[in-house]
Amino acid sequence: RKRTIAQYLHRFREFTAAMPDATVVLRPSGEIEWFNEAAGRLLGLRAPQDIGQRIMNLVRHPVFIQHFRAQRFGDPVEFPSPDDEGMILSVSVVPYGKEQLLLVARDNTRLHKLEQVRRDFVANVSHELRTPLTVISGFLETLADNPEGRLEERQHALELMSQQTTRMRHIVEELLLLARLETDQRPVRREQVAV
């Protein structure tokens, strides 16, 4: 029976050691019972000196401490890695076994960078569209306030509005092309070309 339990324990440790996510087994009060290699990489835990230590003494980010004390288990929380400020972790703590907790931490840095790229893209597109709209709006207000203005001034305003309209149309066409390219599921045709 002891051999069977030891085999299960060995399999569990092999399984969690192979996971790319940090896995930490905790007592209900937060003392570390065991962790895999990824926990050392992502959370900065060291074996064997950190076994028996409280997780909140080693992972000191206020968001994590508040989350752990509130016992909102199951809801993930995000904060920078204690070992690398540039790495963003998504951490979940869930009840596990008999009066134990399982902490799982995942590196979400790439996802955060992609989200930042998306936000920057939306901001840039908004700016690029707002500029021509401001020009067109300004000229329309000028023409509305002075309908009998000189013909050459009105002609100049209409030319500039036409240019800005063309600019906006190109931006919209490029956005539509980008959307089409991103959703195109056709297989890529590879061919050699003379560089």
Model description:
This protein is α+β, with helices and mostly antiparallel strands and 195 residues long. Helix content is 55%, strand content 15%. It contains six helices and five strands. The chain has helices spanning 2-18, 37-43, 55-58, 62-70, 109-145, 151-183, and strands at 22-26, 32-35, 77-80, 88-96, 100-107. A hairpin with a 5-residue loop joins strand 1 (22-26) and strand 2 (32-35). Helix 5 runs antiparallel to helix 6 (151-183). The mean pLDDT is 85.
What is the share of helical residues? 40-55%
Q: Can you summarize the main beta sheet?
A: 5 strands, antiparallel
Average of the residue pLDDT scores: 85
Cα distance spanning the termini: 68 Å
- Physical arrangement of strands within the biggest beta sheet: 2-1-5-4-3
- Overall geometry comes to elongated
Number of strands: 5
Low-confidence blocks of residues: none
How many alpha or pi helices? Answer: 6
User: Could you tell me the strand content as a percent range?
Assistant: 15-25%
The helix/strand class is alpha+beta
Give the ordered list of helices and strands: HEEHHHEEEHH
Cα radius of gyration in angstroms: 29 Å
Topology:
Elements: H1 2-18, E1 22-26, E2 32-35, H2 37-43, H3 55-58, H4 62-70, E3 77-80, E4 88-96, E5 100-107, H5 109-145, H6 151-183
Antiparallel strand pairs: 1-2, 1-5, 3-4, 4-5
Helix pairs in contact: 5-6
